[in-house]
């Protein structure tokens, strides 16, 4: 059994279950994933399955050679865990039905980039007082340290800076519906990243422990 797959976030929509309750869901194109390589403990020192997703339009010679055995020019490659490597072969196609309806998954993606932002938006600072004659301190960060001791700014101080475009994992999301014909998963809740962003869907670790 494969433990994770590569997918692409498409959009958010609504899904009505059997009881008529509406759920916010994210539509994720999950596959087809192609097995491009199998890592073994004897050869590589660890065990994993390398999956490919998407189509690489202009591959160079090294990229073409690496993907030649699978017969598919995959644009994105990821190594994921699997229960039994003997169940997989190079060139094998894995579709969305690798996941089941009702299963809990963790979704890993890159959050939306927000550029350079101030402390109020980036960290939720309250800003300065709205009265007492101040006119330009409304969204200021305030003091970042005393002058004499320590006479410097501590590392890790929350300040203005680059926001977003980070690896984010959202845990224990439920698979509401599986469409193997179109390789779509309807995952309850929101998924990190913009539309058409690359995501990794893996079986929930904490959810499995809880069961």
Automatic annotation (TrEMBL):
Entry annotated with the keyword RNA-binding: yes
PANTHER family: 50S RIBOSOMAL PROTEIN L3, LARGE RIBOSOMAL SUBUNIT PROTEIN UL3C
Transmembrane segments: none
GO cellular component terms, semicolon-separated: cytosolic large ribosomal subunit
Family to which this protein belongs: Belongs to the universal ribosomal protein uL3 family.
Quaternary structure and interacting proteins, as annotated: Part of the 50S ribosomal subunit. Forms a cluster with proteins L14 and L19.
Keywords (A to Z) from UniProt: Ribonucleoprotein, Ribosomal protein, RNA-binding, rRNA-binding
Function field: One of the primary rRNA binding proteins, it binds directly near the 3'-end of the 23S rRNA, where it nucleates assembly of the 50S subunit.
Annotated GO MF terms: rRNA binding; structural constituent of ribosome
PROSITE patterns reported in the protein's UniProt record: RIBOSOMAL_L3 (PS00474)
GO biological process, one term: translation
Chain intervals for the UniProt region annotation (Disordered): 118-150
Protein name (database record): Large ribosomal subunit protein uL3
Gene behind the chain: rplC
Name of one Pfam family that matches: Ribosomal_L3
InterPro entries: Ribosomal_uL3 (IPR000597), Ribosomal_uL3_bac/org-type (IPR019927), Ribosomal_uL3_CS (IPR019926), Transl_B-barrel_sf (IPR009000)
Domain of life: Bacteria
């Amino acid at each position: 059994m494969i433990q994770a797959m590569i997918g692409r976030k498409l959009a958010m929509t609504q899904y009505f279950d059997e009881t008529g309750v509406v759920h916010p869901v994210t539509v994720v194109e999950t596959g087809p994933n192609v097995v491009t390589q199998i890592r073994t403990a004897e050869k590589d020192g660890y065990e994993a399955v390398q999956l490919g997703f998407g189509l690489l339009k202009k591959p160079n010679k090294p990229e073409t050679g690496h993907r030649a055995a699978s017969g598919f020019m995959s644009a994105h490659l990821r190594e994921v865990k699997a229960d039994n490597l003997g169940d997989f072969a190079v060139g094998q196609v894995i579709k969305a039905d690798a996941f089941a309806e009702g299963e809990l998954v963790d979704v890993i993606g890159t959050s939306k980039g927000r550029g350079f932002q101030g402390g109020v938006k980036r960290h939720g600072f309250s800003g300065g007082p709205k009265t007492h004659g101040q006119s330009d301190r409304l969204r200021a960060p305030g003091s970042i340290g005393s002058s004499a001791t320590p006479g410097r700014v501590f590392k890790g101080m929350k300040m203005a800076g680059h926001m977003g475009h980070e690896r984010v994992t959202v845990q224990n999301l439920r698979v509401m519906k599986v469409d193997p014909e179109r390789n779509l998963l309807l995952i309850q809740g929101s998924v990190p990243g913009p539309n058409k962003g690359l995501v990794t869907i893996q079986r929930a670790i904490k959810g499995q422990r809880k069961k």
